[in-house]
UniProtKB/TrEMBL annotation, chain A:
The lineage of its organism: Bacteria, Bacillati, Actinomycetota, Actinomycetes, Kitasatosporales. This is ABC transporter permease subunit. It is found in: Cell inner membrane; Cell membrane. Residues 262-285 are annotated as: Disordered. Belongs to the binding-protein-dependent transport system permease family. It comes from the Bacteria. Its main location: membrane. The keyword Isomerase does not apply. Keywords: Cell inner membrane, Cell membrane, Membrane, Transmembrane, Transmembrane helix, Transport. The chain crosses the membrane at residues 57-81, 93-116, 136-153, 194-213, 233-258. Residues 270-285 have a biased composition (Basic residues). Residues 54-254 form the ABC transmembrane type-1 domain.
UniProtKB/TrEMBL annotation, chain B:
Keywords: ATP-binding, Nucleotide-binding, Transport. The keyword Cell cycle does not apply. GO terms for molecular function: ATP binding. It comes from the Bacteria. PROSITE patterns: ABC_TRANSPORTER_1 (PS00211), ABC_TRANSPORTER_2 (PS50893). The lineage of its organism: Bacteria, Bacillati, Actinomycetota, Actinomycetes, Kitasatosporales. Residues 5-235 form the ABC transporter domain. This is ABC transporter ATP-binding protein. InterPro entries: AAA+_ATPase, ABC_SmlMolc_Importer, ABC_transporter-like_ATP-bd, ABC_transporter-like_CS, Mo/tungstate-bd_C_term_dom, P-loop_NTPase, Transp-assoc_OB_typ2. SMART domains: AAA (SM00382). Pfam families: ABC_tran, TOBE_2. SUPFAM superfamilies: MOP-like (SSF50331), P-loop containing nucleoside triphosphate hydrolases (SSF52540).
Amino acid sequence: MARMTSRGPVLGIAALYFLVPVAASLWFTIAGADGIGFEVYAKGLGSDGLTTSLLRSVSIGLATVALGLLLMVPTVVAVALRLPKLRRVVEILCMMPLVVPPIALVAGVATVLSWQQDLAATPLYGTFQALINRDFPLILVIVYTVMSLPFLYRSLDAGLRSVDLRTLVEAARSLGASRTQTLLQVIAPNLRQAVMGGAVLSLAMVLGEYSVASVLGFEPFAVWMVNVGDSEAQLSVAAAMLSLLFTWGLLLLLTALAGGRTRSSSRSSSRSRSRSRSRKQRKTA
Amino acid sequence: MTVPVQLKQLRREFGSTVALDGLDLDIAPGELVALLGPSGCGKTTALRIIAGFESADGGELLMDGQDVTSVPAHRRDIGMVFQSYSLFPNMTAAENVAYGLRVRGVSSGERAARAAELLDLVGLPGRGGHYPHQLSGGQQQRVALARALAIRPRVLLLDEPLSALDAKVRLTLREEIRRIQLELGITTVFVTHDQEEALSMADRVAVMRDGRLEQCAAPSELYDRPATPFVAEFVGTMNRVPGVVRDGSVVEVFGRRLPVHGDAVLGAGTEVDVLLRPEGFGVAPGGDAVVRVATFLGATTRLHVATASGLAVKVDVPSWEANGLTPGASCTVRPHEKPVLVAERAVPVG
């Protein structure tokens, strides 16, 4: 009971901290000289810029998640199974984007992209053109993949620690599964929650990222919102509110996909691992 | 008749540690062989080499006469049960059992039928729809056994499958494993550090030490006629008492001359340790020895006796003969007239 009482104020303050800006933004978008109305939302939803930039951000986000997972899942599995000594190295490398400011990263990327003029006569020119395609800038996918490494790594690493990976792999192999079958049918399903966790964080990061895209001159959703805000403040805030709802919906969907059997699975694995740990401790004792 | 599993001079090193040092072992069809030994003796390494999870640095591994040393684990047709239950958490018990068949492309109907058959065999009918976390440890290990058997492996490997279970379940499950193994006639290699498990389940027990095979024999032979002092002391309880060799094959201990087991010829007058089981003594009331502790074990009572020379020996006597042999009682201890094993005299500590 005492615990409930002490939780109340903390939860109340947290709720206020979160809800007041949202409520203020909502009020700003619906309150006008003629009273309360949702015209600005109707305008926003009908705007080409919003749909185009939002879809661009989502597609960049999904591509980032796909590329990140393609890189990180085999890497963390291989490190856990074959190269445990490299774990610290991989961890440090994956955490680097947290300590390198995005603006420093983008300065380097901009320098590289500026080489394209010198490469005009080479086949690499086409590659550069693809990288800076305005409708789907691949360069943003690459930079965002690097920036999402800390989220993906942390999430996958936690997921791997909750299952007895080595034994599961050996069990699958002894039953005749190839490496690919083991990865797809045994490891991946048991990492689903971790994969989804990393994906959700990465997607949220991409949808809200502004500085890299802005400096490189692209216009995903966050950049469009700021640009619109210069001339139509209400529309910009309404777009932010819509994007908030959209992002919540997307994250809830991903979280729901990560739930179900996997939740109970990881509970069982953790239990089995903790039993195994206590057995080892007993043995050591 | 081909030998299902043959280990020939297997060698494996981990850095400067020699895990297997020329291990030779033949396992006959339908036989259950237990690899027994202290921690670090190489038993698990040997099992993992048979499974294909470790590679040997030297020697050969033959299965049904074919060299499989370089065959990868998933092509060896081996069923394995691990110490940690190792069930796939994302699959039901039936899906776990059927997984090996699934990767072999067996139809779903056939898989389901085989899974149900195997779950019946291991005493879990109707549990096919349960996820691992909904099963107890013992049930999970039964499912793991069913999963290993579902692919009809040519060899079944058991890596300390009972050590994670509580005592009562362990006892029941070891009987179940043996029943199923005999019923299917499947060649089985079983790693354990629990000698009671090894002696009660195996057709033969291979005692290992420092990567080498000390002795591989039937449990009774291992107990009654250990080939080396290490085996004698590792298997069961053993007393080490000082004795003197009187001629090449007779040793004097407790004032009695006993034949030495085996072909060893020792120089007369050599001081040795004589290895005697607790049941290898007779005890009579009265004398210069004193009973220190008497522990009732059911059919037998174990006495801890201190002799006049200060030697402490453990003696098992039938409980009905132990009346009066209570702590503090004086008694006489004499070894039975049976061949004994001798070892180099151990240097007293301290």
